[in-house]
Request: fold
Amino acid sequence: MGLLSEGKPLSWPETKKHAQLVHKVGVQQFLAIYHRLKDRRGDQLKWGDEIEYTLVTVDAASETARLSLIGPDILEELQEPESTDPDNHYTKWRPEYASYMIEGTPGATPYGGCPLHFNLVEPNMKLRRQQLTEVLKGTNTFLLSITVFPRLGCPSFTEPQFEPRPDSSASRSLFYPDEAVWTGHPRYITLTRNIRERRGEKVTINVPVFKDTNTATPFKEHFPADDGCAARNVLPDHIYMDCMGFGMGCCCLQVTFQACDIEEARHLYDHLAPVCPIMLALSASSPVFRGWLADVDCRWGVISGSVDDRTEEERGIKPLKNDQFVIPKSRYDTIDCYLASGEYNDREVLYDRAVFQQLKDGGLDDLLAQHVAHLFIRDPISLFAEKLEQSVDNDSDHFENIQSTNWQSMRFKPPPPNSPIGWRVEFRPLEIQLTEFENAAFVVFVVLLTRAILSFKLNFYIPISKMEENMKRAQVRDAVSSQMFYFRKNLTPEDDEEEGEETDHAPSAKEPKSHDHEYTLMSVDTIVNGKDEFPGLIPLIRMYVNSIDIDVDTRCTILQYLRLISKRASGELMTTAGWIRQFVLAHPDYKHDSAVSDKITYDLTQRMKDISEGAVPCPELLGTLASKIPEKYQHITCPETPIKAQPSSDSK
Reply:
C-alpha cells in the first residue's frame, strides 16, 4: 500500500507544518526524473499482479469466524526467501493496512512479453497460497482471497478480540479498534489518525442497505457510544461506517505494466481508464458491509469515503478561509483527466496553478503538467522525521508521498531514481476473486487488452464525465445485468474514418467539439462480447492472440480465461458478489431482515475456503471451466525458469 518509509511518524500539526517543503521538493523530484528519463525508449513489456489476502480464524464450537491479527507475526518468515536471495526468489510479501491482511506478488523477475508467461500467472498465485498456508500451519488461521470480511466492524470481529475506543483511538471509530491496523509499521495508524485530524472530524461512509421483506423501514441504527458524529451523519436506510479501516481494510487485485516509453505509458493510462468501470462491475465481490447486506456490490465508494480527508471548506460546506481549494472528490476516486489527449477532458480539472507553471517552465506539456499539479492540490498526510531532508536528484519520497496517497482508478508511475525500472501504469479497480483461476483470468485479460490496444491502435476515449457516471453505475447491485454503460461506438481508426465521412460534426470556432455521437449506452455483455457492428473486447483480444506466434498450450490457457470473463459478462456465470448474496439469502438462519449473522458468516467463510482450495465445485461462479495449464508449467512459477520459446514480435 504505497510508500513505506522508516522512522518516527509526525503528528498532523507537524506534518502540516512541513507540507510546503514536501510540495516544493516533490515537484523538483518529479522534474528531475522527467528530464533524466523522458527520452528513454525501448523498454520491454514487464508486468505483474498484486493480491491482498485476508487471514481468517474460525471456532467450530461457537460457529464463529473472525479476522486473525497475526499478519505482522508471520511476515518475516514469508519474506525469508527474498531476504536470503534478493535476486532469485519466486514471491514477494509485503504488509498491508490491517494486521489481518498481507500482500503477495510475483518474485524477483516480473512477467514479460513472451506469451508463455501467461501460463505462469496461475501457478505463481498457487505458490503464494501454498507458502502462506504453510506458514499458517499449527494455527487455526487460514487465508481467503476476498474483498471484504462480511462482519468487518461488528462486535468482536477480530482474534484476539479488542474493543473500539471512540474517545481515544486514532480513528475514534465506534466499530474498528486500532489494534486491527497493521502493527508492524507506523505508516498505517499514522494515516488513520492524520486523515481524521486533517478532516476535522471522523470520516463518514453511508452505503445503502438492501431492503428485504423484514428489513426495518426506515432502517436506522442506534449507537450508544456515539458522541453525536454518527447521529449527524448517518443517512436513513444506509449502513454507517466511520473510519479508514472500513475501506483500506478491504482487499483487491491490481496489475502494473511497464511501457516502452513515457508516451506509451500515457497512451495506456488513457485507454484503460474507460475500461475501469466495466472491470469493476465484472469483478464485483462486496455485497456485505458491517454485517448487513448492502444494495451495492463493490468496495469502491466505501474506500473513497474512508480516506476522504477534505475539510469543511474543501467540501464546500464553509467558505474558503484557511484552505486553497473546494475539492469535488475524495483522494480515492476515478481519474480526473486524460494524459495523452485533452480533447475528452470535459470536466474542469482542479490543479495548483503555481505548481503547473513551475512544471511548464520545466519543460512539461500542458496535460502532464496539469496531471501532476492536480496531484499536488492534496497535502501530505504521513511524514517521517528522518525523511524530511531529501535529495532532488537521488530521492523521490516527497513526490511519492503525494502520488501514493492519490488513490485513483489508474496510476501513472514514473521510474524510481537510479533504477532500471521504466515508465509504468497501474490498473487499480479490480476486486479480488476466490480462486487463482479467476484472479489469473482477470489479470491475463487486462494484460492482453493492453496488447490489443497498442497493436490495433484502439481508441476507447469517452468524456471524463461519462466515465465518472459509469463508475457509479458499476457499483450498484447486479450491475453487470442491470446497468447500461457509456462506451465508445467505434474502436478502430478505420471505424473513426468511416464515421467522420458519414457525419458532419466539425466544431465551430465559438463552440467546443461535441463527442456525443461517438459513444452510446451499452450493456457489459455487448462491451465485452460484442453485438452487431460493435466488435467487443474479447473478440478483439482473440484477434490479437491469432495475430501472434503462440503455441497451442498457451492458446488453450488464454481461451479458458477469456471464456470465464465472457460468461461473467453475459450473465451465464455469477459475479462473486452475486454468489455471496445468493448464499446469504438462501441460508436457513437468514431472517430476511438484511442482517448477516455470525452463523451465516461462519458457514460462508467455510464454503469460500473449500471453493478456494478446490475441495468443492462452484458451478455458479465457474461453470465447468477450469485451469488448462499443462503439467509442464505447473511448477514453473517465475519467468527466470528456462522456457524454450520464441518471444512474440509484440514484446516491446
